[in-house]
Amino acid sequence: MFKITPMTKNILKNLITKKSTRPYPFVIREPFEESRGELYNDIDNCIFCSTCARKCPSQCITVDKEKGIWTCDPFVCVFCGTCMEACPTHCLHHKRTWRPVSGQREMIEMQGTPPKSKKKAAAKKEEASG
Amino acid sequence: MTSAQVFLALIAALFLAPLAVGVLTGVDRRITARMQSRLGPPILQPFYDIGKLLGKEPMLANHWLAFCSFLYLAGAVTSVVLFFLQADLLLIFFVQAVGSVFLVIGALTVPSPYSQIGAHRELLQIIAYEPLLILVIVGIFLATGSFKIEAVYAMEQPLLFKLPLLFLVLGIALTIKLRKSPFDISASHHAHQEIVRGVYTEYSGPYLAIVEIAHWFEIVLILCLLSLFWSTGVVGLVLLLGITYFVEILVDNTTSRMTWRWMLGTAWITGITFSLINLLWLYYG
Amino acid sequence: MAKTIIPFGPQHPVLPEPIHLSLTVEDEIVTQAVPALGYVHRGLEKLCDIRDYHHMIQVVERVCGICSKIHAMCYCHGLEEMMQVEVPPRAKYLRTIWSELHRVHSHLLWLGLFADGFGFEALFYQLWKIRERVMDINEATTGNRVIVSVNVMGGVRKDLSLEQIRWILSELELVESELKALESTILDDYTVKERTVGKGMLTKEQAYDLGAAGPTLRGSGIAQDCRQLNYAAFSDLEFEPVVEYDGDSYARSKVRYRETLQSIDLVRQALHKLPDGEINVKVKGNPEGEGVARVEQPRGELFYYFKGNGTKHLERLRIRTPTFANIPPLAAMLPGIELADVPVVVLSIDPCISCTER
Amino acid sequence: MAEAKTTEKKIPVLATQAVENDNLKAEIRRLKSEGYRLVTLTCVDLDEEHVDLLYSFDKDLEMVHLRMQQPKSTPAPSISDILFGAFLVENEIQDQFGICFDGLVLNFENYLYLEEEVARTPFCKYSVIRKDAQ
Amino acid sequence: MPDTLLFILVVVPFIAALGLYALRIESLRMVLVLATAVLLTGSSLALFSHETVAFSTTLLGVNPQPLIVLLDFVVLFIILAVGLSAKHRLIIYLAGAQIVLLAIFKLVSPAEATGQAMFLVDPLAKLMVFVVSVVGSVIILHALPYMKNHEEHLHLTTSRQPQFFAVMVLFLGAMNGLVLTNDLGNFYFFFEVTTLCSFLLIRHDLTDEAKANSLRALWINSLGGLALLIGLLWISLDLGTVNIQQILAQTPEAAFLLLPIGLLCFAGLTKAAQLPFQSWLLGAMVAPTPTSALLHSATMVKAGVYLFLRFSPAYSGTFFSTTVAFVGGFTFLAAAALAISQSNGKKILAYSTVSNLGLIIACAGIGTPAAIAAGMFLIMFHAVSKALIFLCVGTIEQRIASRDIEDMRGLYAIMPVTAIITVLGALTMILPPFGMLLGKWMAIEASAHNILLVIILALGSAITVLYWARWAGLLMSYPFKGRIYPESQPALTRLPLLGLIGGALLLSFYAPAIYNSLIYPAISALPLAMVDTVPATSWGILVLDRGSFPVIPLFLVAALGLFAAIYFYKLAGKVKPTGPYLSGAQTPDDASAYAGPLRQSIIPSSSNYYLEKIFGEVAINRWVNTAAIVLILLMLGGGL
Amino acid sequence: MNMLSKFLQTSRIKSPWVLHFDCGSCNGCDIETLAVLTPVYDVERFGIINVGNPKHADVFLVTGTVNHRNKKVLKNLYDQMPQPRAVIAIGACGLSGGVFRDAPNVVGGVDKVIPVDVYVPGCPPKPEAIIDGVVKALELFAAKS
Ligand code: SF4
Ligand code: SF4
Ligand code: SF4
Ligand code: SF4
Ligand code: SF4
Ligand code: SF4
Ligand code: SF4
Ligand code: SF4
After folding, report:
1. C155-185 pLDDT, tens per residue?
2. How is chain D split into domains, by residue range?
3. How far apart are CA B94 and CA E438, in angstroms?
4. CB nearest to B258's CB, from C116, C122, C191
5. Domain residues of chain F, as ranges?
6. DSSP secondary-structure letter at C236?
7. C-alpha span between E168 and E163 (Å, rounded)
8. Ligand 5 centre from B83 Cα, in Å?
9. Model confidence over B7-24: pLDDT tens digits?
10. What CATH number was assigned to the domain covering residues F2-144?
């Protein structure tokens, strides 16, 4: 009908075999190949097309095409990888390690070279020539 | 006893014994962790816990908690001191009951449902283990002819041979007192249980530290009682204590927490049956 | 006589999630239990107004973090049916594999919490130790331990390599053998049975009338499992719904224990039969019209209702989760039990409040 | 990535059976006696005046839906006296859409999920000020 | 001199009773009661100065015997009349039988002829006189303001206080007579007077319940009276004497006398409300609280156990004695268990009384010197502590209009002084170094060779802790920020409480001294069959041959602990207050309420566990009563 | 005296008892927080115990989005924690409301109600990240006194 303390075997085995605890802060395990950690923009390749901002389900990316600023709120990002897949130039990547903890709010702001829009470029040209 | 002996006994009772129990609890937690395939806390963890608690901001839901926590400590300490002074066993038992009663009264003074339920469960634990302890003491009396501890030390043979079943009965009481599974019903180590931390719920910060220290003294007392069962040699005594404690940890890790109804029934029925058999055997055997 | 009235929750160490029960007890016997909800309610169904239907995949995955994959699958499956998208077979198999892995980890998690509910700490820790292997499989194959985000409309985002398949099979072997080593503790231990057998009785009729779902329903002797609807790859796989007849907490835990082994077996079958081919198709257009979808979550039948209006925003998204269906049966189980059994009985329906309140 | 085969789309419709306030309870009783199990209620906001209430039932994995058009201003009959399991979802709809249910066995009076701070029905496109259920 | 003292102790109350009944003026009544109380207290204390055992054949030179005979019949006829008017068959038969038997006895009695010492002042008697006169006086004083309030609550037009105080005072005299007399015939008379007093006081409020309960008390006690009378007749026929000392002197040889002594003990059981006769005492709780305190816990019921202790030498060492121990022990355990299931404060006290008397009877049954000493200790400490708690409950009841302990939750906030006194009183019942525990300790140590008995005592002792500790705890249960109201009481209410608690503490402290001066001489003189060393004291430590109890040292340690605790209590007043833990659901404006379902703000409440299903009267009454009857039959059989 | 205060100081860092409150999380963060207690991560190594009672806790782990109902609970629990204490917000939801921040019944992150000392981003954060969070909170304790 029932057994009395069948757990004993397991318990005693644990006592003499290796413990399963990973000594985390002292030994850091190699992250998996696929792990989606901190998001990171290879800003030089970014064309400020805003695709990532549109596709992001948390709406945490803002792209300022004028100034060439790509901003992401790391406290809102849910690390889903959608933006990375949508980016036409493949300049977005997830690092394999997680984003470090912090003591206050912060934004990720990256400054790149904004692509010259045709209109503006033309205007500039005019200026230069004029 | 000479006054030097008394002095030594006081030192042992007041300082060495609780320190030893602190380390023992640390070892206990370590072994438990290993049994669960974990690394576990440092051996000195119980002391850090106490130190941390002492340094916390005091906060109370009722002043009487402070009052009662000190009397709990006083009761526990006095009983241990009396033991080291080799007083009357039954008296020691009644003195430790003072501590337990104040722990409960303290918990009852707060109109908090968890604390109240914990206190009632603690009372039920008290009525479960108190008769058993009295019977163990009576067993010792029947074996030695006296309630005084010195009579035990005068024995030539370890008490264990005469009181094997009563040793098991003491084991039940020990499990209840150590708050170990299956009897961790009124306050468990951590709080994954239905009444949060039961009697301890409302004691916090320094007051919780006092309660924990008092609990150490209670453990000292009950281990001392255990030690009486092998009073003839130090090696046997240490072995007996070690094995008993290990078995306690084993039981803790291989059983669920039971309900108080189960506890009351089991403790009384098995405890009293075992005691009765052992006592009758002593009396007529 | 005065009553004891206890606020059980919203924060309570045995309840992993915030739910409140006002318990009235007498000598620790529960005479009345009134629930209060709303501590997790976010109103996320309404987010479909401002997030398009692709975004919503990520949102519904976060209805619940435990069986997240299955929410996303149900959502995608329902919309794909509405939009008449044919999902490639390999994607169907992959969805099945991950969803069953979620069931394994969810059941292991539950068995652990259940053990903790009746104070069996060592068992709790062992089960969670085993579960870490499944979490590792999740992370290694999808990139995240818990919320895997692999579903997209029209298929999945990640593929499995041959090497990964082999590794998963060997890990599952370990999970299975380690779990079986605990079988006698979970099912036969005296103290465990003492705490679970006969606790929280729900008869077959009650379970059916009150609308119970999943293991709660199957533990009362009704063999209903939405996987029999043959969504994803379930039409190709062999399985029988797990049924137990006693209707108590023990029966429910037995159902879950057996389902864990069953799911491991299903993953294995699916991995062996995994067809080659594409893993997703491009989905064009916007959903229009009405549709429903049902899949089997670890906790039971999950029901989605969609109403589209031809724009990229859904008109209405309605999610009915299994715990939502299991709350009325729970309310019927509570009166008359001991206070000490409240956690056991509450946990026995495997409550997921996050899902319930959305 | 392959293109989805988008063979001439037709708008999917859900097969439902229309009911009125008056015969709702009778229908529910009929379904119950035929061995159907309540899955859930779904409330869909239609316009400023109306919502649709969908009652979904299941029997051996086959679903049946009843559809009832309900004016927002009048209370709908509660079926929780017939099927206790419905009380939770009816309370939810009270909270989210401001529809009142008559004869709810356990009535959270518009405060199942929401607090006093929330002044408007959150799930209606044309939100209304939440009323206290009487 | 002892003559005068005896006169004051026994006769003056009778006279005062007449006076109280006749005088209907409140202030005069006050004076008279005060005077009687002072007189009684003074003379009972004065009695202690007479170290030697004193005898007296007459009272102030008058032989009261004929008067006693007359009064004896008067009492019996009153009982008969009560029975007739209530058409209570049992009472009629019992009273009738007693009248006939008494007549026979008076006709054949040899007692008067021998002209033996009529009164005996030995330590046991002194102890009892002390309990009756001092504790009794304090209770009667407390009754003065109590009864005034009581009648105001009842809106009585004509005061019934004259009767009340008359009976109360009369009772004191009867009790003193009962413990001092050395003549079993007179003993019977006083016994019947207490029965009658008890009856009158229980029905004092004249409610239907009171009347019914008083009749129950009357028939059960009359049953005891009948048993007593039969035993008496038997002994007088057999031995030719009813002089207690002579009986005791003869019994060891005349072992066949155990059955009549068994009958006397049976009477003791009914008077002490031992199982299965407990029902009359529980019913008696309908009476005004001073009555309960005086008759039904502090003094009258002690007449029953007094009988056991008095006759303990007669049966010591016999099988009968062992069965007495079991009867007492069983009542100790069963009544304690029954007390768990009660929430009515007075019923708890009633069961607790029954239980403690059981323990005393068990002590008498164990019959070693240490056990007898324990019994005497218990009589004294129980009387003081129990009277105190009764008066506390009475005081509380008049304030909160309930005697349910659940309603006393948080009493500290409205009656801080009374609450603390009550808690202290409860603690003196269960904790060392107080006297009750000392007695219990001696009892257990003395009974340790009787395995079954010691198991019973161990269980009973633990259960006793349960019902006292939870009561003590709930009195103090109030929220930190809750306002505490100062309490004002009439001096005659406050002083008796303070006096009794002070007395309880002091007596406990002086327990070794009391032992030396009073109990040691008593038990060393007893012709006990159980030869065992008599406990001794040294340095405030009570030493048995098997153990020791350091009373004074423990008191010192306790005082130290208490001072430390009070110090920290004071400090705690400055600590940050917080509400109780309520799972985080507390409402913003009141930390001790929580926001529950349906937007209600709920104040969580708690209730004790009464375990009705396990220890309830319904659940176990039948079993324990049957078991008790079997034990009593065994006891009487043991007398054969 | 110095030794004693030093001991108390060390103790504070060596014995952080945590209180975990699910403040409307999807369970993802909760199960990771619980996982941290289990053998594979075993934070009892650092003396961390999950106490489930604010009166005994030093570190408050909060997961999930704050809504109108649970914000009161959050505040209540925080108020019952004695000093010194630290609050750790876990996961995108606890930090800001995450993917749900625009949902009708969402107030926002934990710091809208109580001061947060450490933010642990992720959805859900890995158990290792949660351990990092607690370690960071301990640094705060060390600095505070
Ligand atoms: S938070 Fe910003 S920078 Fe970081 S991963 Fe997300 S998008 Fe990239
Ligand atoms: S990972 Fe997801 S949530 Fe984060 S920025 Fe990219 S799309 Fe947005
Ligand atoms: S999608 Fe890629 S290229 Fe476009 S803005 Fe985002 S990061 Fe830059
Ligand atoms: S509760 Fe007692 S036994 Fe458990 S850890 Fe604390 S001191 Fe040790
Ligand atoms: S029951 Fe929970 S809190 Fe207690 S020891 Fe086990 S895991 Fe820790
Ligand atoms: S049942 Fe729902 S909440 Fe649970 S894991 Fe599956 S999808 Fe998530
Ligand atoms: S049932 Fe629970 S685990 Fe599953 S999705 Fe819902 S909340 Fe999450
Ligand atoms: S952060 Fe992500 S995993 Fe955590 S509660 Fe929010 S949605 Fe769930």
Report:
1. 888 888 888 888 888 988 888 888 888 888 8
2. 2-75
3. 10
4. C191
5. 2-144
6. G
7. 8
8. 33
9. 888 888 788 888 888 898
10. 3.40.50.12280
Per residue in C310-346, pLDDT (tens digit) is 888 888 888 888 888 888 888 888 888 888 888 888 8
Tens of pLDDT, residue by residue over C285-316, are 788 888 888 888 888 888 888 888 888 888 88
Residue E413: exposed, middle, or buried by beta-carbon count in 10 A (0-12, 13-18, 19+)?
middle
| Interface residues from chain B to F (CB-CB < 8 Å) | 29, 33, 36-42, 45, 47-52, 54-59, 189-192, 196-197, 200-202, 204-205, 208
This prediction has a pTM of 0.87
Helix axes C89-117, C249-273, angle to 10 degrees: 150
CA atoms within 13 A on the CB side of C274: 20
d(CA C57, CA E518): 91
- Range E420-452 burial, b when 16+ CB lie within 10 A, else e: ebbbbbbbbbbbbbbbbbbbbbbbbbbbbbbbe
Contact E586 F55 (CB under 8 A): no
What is the DSSP track for C262-280? HHHHHHHHHHHH---S-SB
Which pLDDT value is given to residue A128?
A: 54
Q: Which atom of ligand 2 is nearest to the CA of A84?
A: 6
In whole numbers, what is the pLDDT of chain B averaged over residues? Answer: 85
Please state, rounded to an integer, the average pLDDT across all residues of chain F. 85
Ligand nearest to the CA of C122: 5
E-state strands within E88-170: 119-121
Q: Whose CA is nearest to atom 7 of ligand 2?
A: A56
Cis peptide before C241 (omega within 30 of 0): no
Three-state DSSP at D56 gives strand
Tokens of residue E605, six digits: 């409440």
Q: Looking at ligand 7, which residue's alpha carbon is closest to its atom 1?
A: C352
Q: Is the peptide bond before E433 cis (omega within 30 degrees of 0)?
A: yes
> How much is the average pLDDT of D52-66?
84
Distance CA E21, CA E170 (A): 10
The whole-angstrom separation of Cα E443 and Cα E462 is 14
Domain C41-357 has CATH 1.10.645.10: yes
* Paired tokens of C244: 């137990």
The dihedral through the CA atoms of E272, E276, E277, E283 has a sign that is positive
Separation in Å, CA E117 to CA C118, E176, E363? 72, 16, 28
The residue to which tokens 């309990």 are assigned: E131
| Contact predicate D76/D68, CB 8 Å | yes
Instruction: Give E 562-601 residues with CB within 8 A of chain D.
Output: 597-599
Contact A21 F133 (CB under 8 A): no
CB contact under 8 A, C64 and F27: yes
Complete domains list, chain A, with CATH: 42-116 (3.30.70.3270)
3 state SS for F102-142: CCCCEEECHHHCCCCCEEECCCCCCHHHHHHHHHHHHHHHH
B15: DSSP letter: I
Integer Cα distance of B77 and B61 in angstroms: 25
**Global ipTM:** 0.85
- What residue segments make up the domains of chain C, in order of their start? 41-357
